[in-house]
């Protein structure tokens, strides 16, 4: 018993010493999606804030593919020293374990939660060639043309994938899912008219909505968006009771990362999120800054996994 206490004390002392010296070299933040995606936007804002605070390079490393699971597996296997982090989101940390029984990592077992960063809604956007200006008109058009509407997603297991599957299930329509390796290439095809619609993240779609290159029909929360207040919710516009699709980002480290380093990251990132200039930057992108404790974020991930498991089962969504 005494030996265990001594060892625990030594580990805590070592962890505190590491945290005091941390960081001594560049930190790498793995992003599971392509540059320009909503998650990438948040990652670069946080990386810059840490760089400014600690005067140490923080590098964003985009590793897209497989709905974010490639990046998740990479970080789960990385050294637990605080120098490899992942800016994951609802897809990598909650939907993937619900959708993929062979996932190579466990969000609850393999990661140390640091903090929830932002939340936002998705928005249903159409290419202007689609003959629908309301959600009810879109549903009628989809029912009259089964299988002819292609909806794009930023990858299997993303909210844009599950949003389309849930929408088709609740409306009794048939649409074809086309997954991409990120929202950038998906949007290029949507803007070119090769896709007809997408449940895109607000930060990604907002510039094209404002320019008129995409037509927005509804947002996916139960309450209207502060960024797009004139748009109805899906529930409001089409009577799809309980239709809710939210997008969030959070930062995690490999599971065995010392507690002292996790807390140092948590405190600095949370302070950055509270800064007025950061809030303004994120709000302009349609994002709400959060910042909570590692324990709160861990509980949030657990609840989100439970929620998305139910959505996957009820919608019949699968990985193509």
Description of the structure:
- The chain has 320 residues and is an alpha/beta fold.
- The chain has two domains: 10-119 and 247-315, Bordetella uptake gene, domain 1 (D-Maltodextrin-Binding Protein, domain 2, 3-Layer(aba) Sandwich); 121-238, 3-Layer(aba) Sandwich (D-Maltodextrin-Binding Protein, domain 2).
- It contains 13 helices and ten strands.
- Helix 2 crosses helix 11, helix 4 packs across helix 13 (294-315) and helix 7 (159-171) runs parallel beside helix 13 (294-315).
CATH superfamily of the largest domain: Bordetella uptake gene, domain 1
Largest sheet: 10 strands, mixed
Give the amount of beta strand, in percent: 15-25%
Count, helices: 13
Low-confidence stretches: none
CATH architecture call of the largest domain: 3-Layer(aba) Sandwich
The level 1 CATH classification of the largest domain is: Alpha Beta
